[in-house]
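Thread: quick sanity check before group meeting

JM: Hey all, I'm pulling together slides for Thursday and realized we never actually wrote out the predicted structure for the chain we discussed last week. Dropping the sequence here so it's in one place. If anyone has concerns about the input, flag it before I start.
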Amino acid sequence: TQLLSRIDIAVNTLSILLQLFAVGRLTARLGVALMLVFVPLLMVLGFSILALSPFLAVLIGVMIARRAGEYAVMRPCREMLFTSVARATKYKAKNFIDTVIYRGADWVNALAHDFLVGRGFATAGIAWIGVSASALWAVVAFALGRRHQNQQSAPEAA
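JM (edit): ok, ran it. Output follows.
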């Protein structure tokens, strides 16, 4: 319980500090596409380190980085993507994403983890799969961010 509470304190502290002092400035300077790629690339690095050093301290560090990045960077940038869609579409999509996609992904991840462990994969092997999944995540995030930026900069049709 103490370990989990310390992880939560670290995540919350990092999240608020990043949101207050970095994310807005970086997003204005770098754009949504590059900011959306930040956390997936951080996870490529984190999972690579975890694969090479499969220790609890490394796992905790990767967990903190992912969760803080999700709350401080990904969530605000993901919300920015919805500024280029109609209001009705936005609310339908957000409800679907927040329930079906996120909870479904949690379920699929748990099944995948159990499947891999059942096939003899250890932490390092699962982490290398995480590297691949995070790289794919980075590609998709960048494509979505670029599409959003192109829609925002395109002249409005009359």
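AS: nice. The two ends are 58 Å apart (CA to CA). Helices lie at 2-30, 32-52, 56-81, 87-118, 123-153.
JM: adding both to the slides.
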